[in-house]
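Hi again,

Forgot to attach this to my earlier email, sorry! This is the prediction with FE2/S2 (inorganic) cluster bound. I've pasted everything inline since the attachment limit keeps bouncing my files.
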Amino acid sequence: MADRPIQFYFRGALQQVQGVAPTRTVLQYLREDLRQTGTKEGCAEGDCGACTVVIGELTGADGQEELQLRAVNACIQFLPALDGKALFTVEDLAPAADRLHPVQQALVDRHGSQCGFCTPGFAMSLFALYENQPTCPEREEIDHTLSGNLCRCTGYRPIVDATRDAYALPRQPLNRQPVIAALKALAKLPPLDYEGADRRSHSPRNLVELAELRERLPEARLVAGGTDVGLWVTKQGRDLGEIIQLGAVAELKTLSLGAEHLEIGAGVTLTDAFAALTAFEPQWAELARRFASTPVKNAGTLGGNVANGSPIGDSMPALIALGARIVLQKGEATREMALEDFYLDYQKTALRPGEFVRALRLDAPSAPLQRLFRSYKVAKRTDQDISAVAAGLAVHLDDEGIIRRARIAFGGMAATPKRADACEAALLGRPWDLNSVRLGMAALREDFTPMSDVRASSAYRLNVAANLLQRFWLETRLDGSPAQPPVRLDQLAPIGQEARR
Ligand SMILES: Cc1cc2nc3c(=O)[nH]c(=O)nc-3n(C[C@H](O)[C@H](O)[C@H](O)COP(=O)(O)OP(=O)(O)OC[C@H]3O[C@@H](n4cnc5c(N)ncnc54)[C@H](O)[C@@H]3O)c2cc1C
Ligand code: FES
Ligand code: FES
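Structure tokens for the complex follow:
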């Protein structure tokens, strides 16, 4: 590893950064150091999207490299995360002083901006969509793309209309070749070992380097996507000490999806991990839709979500319900355990000094049992909100419809994500019917004594958890009555018009 500046592609040239703390955010660097103030700061915590930029990264094998462009929140990305990548900001969009990019032109034409503070962020999210999706997407995808961009004055209809209009204008894609060439040159640099403002950050490129560093520096803070850790700095002013960045470790970013099993490297982004999980278990789509925003999922990792160990992290209940196992590595040795066993107490996990999360493993349900699965998130808003209760619910039925295996897990109900042992015991050996579900609902009161906080009272959490079990049954019942899928507010239509389904 080499002591060298952080280097990335920016405005058609290689940009070098040195002398600043490794926890300086991309947004601070853009606005305060480079005085590139098109990118705005609203919340400094990944919530509003005013700071949205697009990061370019090489994917694909040698000789077949492709440029992946994804929107992220600059306010919670630390500068070393840019090393070896390309950065695009709103100032990069217009091809000439008198000509706008189609997404900008459409925003102007459709009056998609009033005070304009949010507009650069919207333009960047739409730029990423425009680059990744050559034809105009469905409304659902547009909504998902904009789930991390808040506008408090314009309203979203003109912005959605502008998105569609951008596709009707003459196409103006990014010239990717110079970017790819620059990124290939950057990939030849030695791994980054960076020091600035008396703080050190290491960016290993492979598992061997990572394992060695982690054993040598067990106190160093691991940073993957930084979507949790970033806020410790921007909101809590914490000093992270020495840092090990995981973003460049190739093996942590591997995904292996087969008919029978799925393995997700700890450094796979939530966007990619959720796509694989949805291919593996289609019901995961609901959680993917409700989890954070597109820019947060583009940066955050599945490993970071499970390692953080938050009792209100959303992926853990669903992963536990699916029987996920976590793979831990220290030096060359690995060990594996059921994900639920990884959580020991409030923010206390089974990770030992010098150890890190390497991957998550899931197996397909074993025949002849039939697995029913659902995941629910209850929060005050649809997008970008913290769960009051998150549920992962799975029952495995035999040919007669008897529950032979149950994995019922909740977040927001205890100090850790936790299985509902009493509820599972109440269900086992019984038919998947309303009587059994009622027994399970009652047993949940033995499993949990949730706390009351600003998000929900203890009583509400208990009631909601029990009701989610009933909802699970209503959606998957096998007694011949029609299953009752949930009705969404956005699917309701004014009287006399047909509902959107
Ligand atoms: C606006 C916003 C919305 C969010 N919405 C949601 C949401 O809806 N649901 C939800 O659950 N979360 C949400 N989060 C939290 C966060 O995005 C997730 O927890 C994310 O998965 C964290 O991943 P990361 O890679 O960014 O982790 P980081 O911030 O890099 O790290 C998180 C923790 O995990 C540790 N860590 C990371 N990787 C490893 C590893 N391989 N081995 C050992 N330790 C490791 C780090 O040291 C740190 O303690 C949100 C965050 C923001 C900012
Ligand atoms: S400033 Fe609000 S998301 Fe970054
Ligand atoms: S135009 Fe004012 S916040 Fe969106």
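The chain has 17 helices and 21 strands. The chain has a mean pLDDT of 95.

That should be everything now.

G.
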